[in-house]
């Protein structure tokens, strides 16, 4: 039992979406009633609820909801779960009404705010979702997950500069987290801003040792800049290359990336390794 | 016989890629072989389930797949995408651009949008909407898999067991065995180009 409980706790910590596994792990705990002896029993119930909704097991979700409601009669946190059931069974207007009621009672209700954004997004009303989320971020500017969600909503509309802005906000708050620099590098590359993409990929490999994705990025961008060769002032500006490194430096960066990737691929299988090495030689 | 035939392996892997990340936009490429003017989609190479709109790793993957395809005497004849919003069945703008880069490598490449709603167990159709590029525009072939008045279809699955087999594999959660380029970048020991264990599973399904 304890290892299942530990695993469930790990999944909660990492915020990974693994509904099938959660249900598999929780099943024996629920069936034998052993769940009531778990320290974090209510967190586990909430976790299993969400997994059940994700897997379309609505009856299970409703059963758990009854248990949670019995224990936490007045809870807003439990209340929004009713909204989620409504969303899952295809009654979005009931859900919307509930979330709106919760917000009318308390406009700072984070959970209701987020559910409303998720609902609008699921219904395809991305513009409204963006609007709601921007309002939320006015008061909760250090909620990086909200910024990431806003980034993905902007991307739905192909608004790359706006999406980039969201990641910039997160980086200001969490400059040492390589994940956000990686995200920023990739948006910049997509927008054609090679200079910043290179800087950000370099930051990634600085913050995260032998980050494969990071080194692929360094090599890709360094080689691309070298390929572009001599550009006009305007072309340089457009590609963010006004203060790009010298060709010699770019070559050394490309070589460094190659070395680190070859090293990383030592543990890879035959096909991946051969293909990666062929790519590195090109 | 149809001009475009989709093998069990290609179809099953694309569908399993979708099944592994049902909440995400997911995309990948399809390997093809051409014979007597007919195109056979022999394999699917799953690319990503996150940051699908960003191009750098797509570029790296495409370049590596070109090398891999060449070694195996195949072309990269197709692209597939399923949108995180199940109601979106048009080719998304970013996909149109990515598929366009594919045209530079394979001038008759086809982009397939997967209609997730049609992957349900009770569905009797493949749930693939082909898009072909004419006059620099991607145009849907809405009834691509339907038999026309001559009794044939432009697109077809290789036989009438493909659908059932793919559904069974999804029901059996075979998707745990599929690894895309995103996953490979986190763990290079994962064979994203072939997914050999899954290929075996599909063969014996």
UniProtKB/TrEMBL annotation, chain A:
InterPro entries noted in UniProt: EMC2-like, TPR-like_helical_dom_sf, TPR_EMC2
Pfam families: TPR_EMC2
Keywords: Endoplasmic reticulum, Membrane, Repeat, TPR repeat
Location of the EMC2 TPR-like domain: 79-199
Cell compartment(s), UniProt: Endoplasmic reticulum membrane
Keyword Membrane: yes
Entry GO CC: EMC complex
Principal subcellular localization: endoplasmic reticulum
Membrane topology: Peripheral membrane protein
Gene3D superfamilies, A to Z: Tetratricopeptide repeat domain (1.25.40.10)
Superkingdom assignment: Eukaryota
Family per record: Belongs to the EMC2 family.
Function: Part of the endoplasmic reticulum membrane protein complex (EMC) that enables the energy-independent insertion into endoplasmic reticulum membranes of newly synthesized membrane proteins.
Subunit organization: Component of the ER membrane protein complex (EMC).
Name this protein carries in UniProt: ER membrane protein complex subunit 2
Organism: Coemansia guatemalensis
Organism ancestry: Eukaryota, Fungi, Fungi incertae sedis, Zoopagomycota, Kickxellomycotina
TrEMBL record, chain B:
Record's signal peptide: none
Pfam families for the chain: UPF0172
InterPro entries xref list: EMC8/9
Superkingdom to which the source organism belongs: Eukaryota
Gene Ontology terms: cellular component: EMC complex
The protein, known as: MPN domain-containing protein
